[in-house]
Amino acid sequence: MLEGQLTPRDLETRDNGREIIWKNNACWERQAMVDEGILRNDSKFGYWELNPDHASDVQKTPAYKSI
């Protein structure tokens, strides 16, 4: 799904040589959204679920509509 969306830099690894940059960035972004209350913090591993308190606000955004 991300073919053509990622840059060559996104596919490189962090300095530790273990973490692919785009995956690491996604983890940090998920945590930021949990901290902001946008995502639930009790979702199963690998799932990003909207916090019901913010779901209607998020669903109105252009980014959500493009998914």
Strand content is under 5%
Rg (CA only): 14 Å
Q: Strand-and-helix sequence, N→C?
A: HHH
Unreliable sequence segments: none
What does this structure look like?
The protein is mainly α and 67 residues long. The chain has one domain. It contains three helices and no strands. The protein has helices at residues 21-35, 55-59, 62-65. The chain is globular and about 40 Å long.
Please describe the topology of this protein.
Blueprint: H1 21-35, H2 55-59, H3 62-65
Summed up:
The protein is mainly alpha-helical and 67 residues long. The protein has 3 helices and no strands.
Which keywords apply here?
67 residues
